[in-house]
Every structure is written in C-alpha cells, then in structure tokens.
Specification:
With 169 residues, this protein is α/β, with parallel strands linked by helices. The protein contains 6 helices and 9 strands; from the N terminus they run ββαβαβαβαβαβββα. A 7-stranded mixed beta sheet has the order 1-2-9-6-5-3-4, sandwiched between helices. The chain has a two-stranded antiparallel sheet with strand order 7-8. The radius of gyration is 14 Å and the shape is globular.
C-alpha cells in the first residue's frame, strides 16, 4: 500500500491511498472517531458497496446504503435532495462520513453532498474507474448539473481517496 498526502501549506487536506485489497484500510479510516457512514454507490458498484458496508458494520459503525442512478443522472438536485433527506432521517452529524463507491460522476455528487450537508461532512471515495481514480476523485472538484454540466459545485477535498488495484482490475 502506498500513500500520497495532499497539502495546502503545512495543512493536510487529503490522502490518496493506492494498493490492493484495501477493504480493511477503508473501514479503519472511516471508523476513526465516527459512528455512522453513508455508503453511496451506483448500480454497477452495489456489490462492492455491500462489501465495504459489511466491513464498516464489523468495526461497529451504523451504515446506511443508497444507490444513485448511473452516470450524469446521479448529478441532479432531486437526487441530492433525496440523499439529504435520508441523512437527516438517520440523524447524521458533522462527525459522520459519506463514502462514495463508483466512477467520476458518483464521486462528483458524493463530494457535493458531503460538502454541503450540514455545511460539511467528511467524504471518502473508492474509485472504481481509471478516470475516476486520476481525475474526478483528486483535487476537491464536486458538482451537480443544473441546466448544464457541473454548474453548481464547490471545491472540497475528500479526506481520503482509495484506489484499489483489485477493484480497477
């Protein structure tokens, strides 16, 4: 496992973790001082999200899963609102985490949700595509589509990005 820390000055803003079989590292990182996790995925990554959700539960976390539509369809305000309501119904606080399991569109909307719900929850991503791993998950770009692609967004670095070579394979 290799790690790269992204800093702004002397402040760590994000960590990129690359390796194989990272499920334990993901659950350990997410559980650090937290009791709840929302695991957001897309239809093609439900099986992976379930693996991570099981691992998170095994370390004592209360886990809520939600499957967003595929691709750009996930980046609609109506989808964001549905997730906000789910987080509210389950009493999420700023001490909780949102884990996005999927490609670039999924991590875009996951980051937007995490950055804007309660003015900011921690976000972590498990990139499942090469483009998501090298572009969408790194740099803090989050957005949703409003009458055009990525017209509403915020820069908010994820706490961690996991690039699991086994997942990409």
């Amino acid at each position: 496992m290799r790690s790269h820390v992204i800093t702004e000055g002397s402040t760590t803003v994000s960590e990129i973790v690359v390796g194989r079989s990272l499920a334990a590292a993901i659950s350990d990182a997410a559980a650090q001082g937290r009791t709840k996790a929302a695991v957001l995925c897309q239809p093609s990554t439900v099986h992976l999200a379930e693996v991570f959700a099981t691992d998170l539960r095994s370390v004592g976390m209360d886990v809520t899963g939600y499957t967003l539509p595929d691709g750009e369809e996930a980046k609609q305000l109506s989808v964001v609102e549905t997730v906000y309501r789910m987080l509210n119904e389950r009493s999420f606080t700023r001490n909780d985490v949102v884990l996005g399991v999927g490609g670039g569109a999924l991590t875009d909307v996951t980051g937007f949700i995490a950055a804007t719900y309660l003015r900011g929850l921690s976000a972590m991503y498990v990139a499942t595509t090469l483009l998501g791993a090298v572009d969408a998950t790194i740099g803090g770009k989050t957005a949703v589509n409003v009458d055009g692609k990525n017209l509403a967004g915020v820069f908010s670095h994820p706490e961690k990005v996991f690039i699991d070579i086994d997942v990409l394979d």
